[in-house]
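User: I'm preparing a small set of examples for a lab meeting where we compare how different chains pack in three dimensions. I only have the primary sequence for this one, and I'd like the structure in token form so I can line it up with the others. Please keep the answer compact; I'll paste it straight into my notes.
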Amino acid sequence: MKKKVFVFFPDGVGLRNFAFTDFKTIGEQMGFDITYWNNTVFSLKDNLGFNEVKIENHQLHPLTPIYSRARKRCELNVSKAKFNDDVYTTYKFPFNYNSIKNTFKSLYTKLLIGVYSSEKGVEAIRKKIKRSRTKKPKICLL
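Assistant: Understood. Below is the structure token output for the 142-residue chain.
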């Protein structure tokens, strides 16, 4: 029985790194059954003949990326406080204020961070993301 390998392609970078290289050939020579979980618009089955599981619904709720950014920052804040280590602050990227839309996103993210920067808060924000009205977070989250 062949061992199964499941490769997730969230974007075109994964396609470039795995689908357009010898990854599949080498894997099959080693006795693996390779299936791709494809979140891109590029059809691997039609264009390259690869086994794929296609994620049909690419839509996210407009607030999901904001909640996800806030969740990451809250987790970093909680970890910094829990382990008393400043290394967690190096993983925080600066907020973007170069347009009205980005300013709104940054300010709303900061508000969410202020409200949810605790262990219970992190759990609550994860639940909010899971309760999204679209199917994608239910399929891909955590």
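A couple of notes for your slides: Residues 64-140 form one domain. The mean pLDDT is 87.

User: Perfect, thanks.
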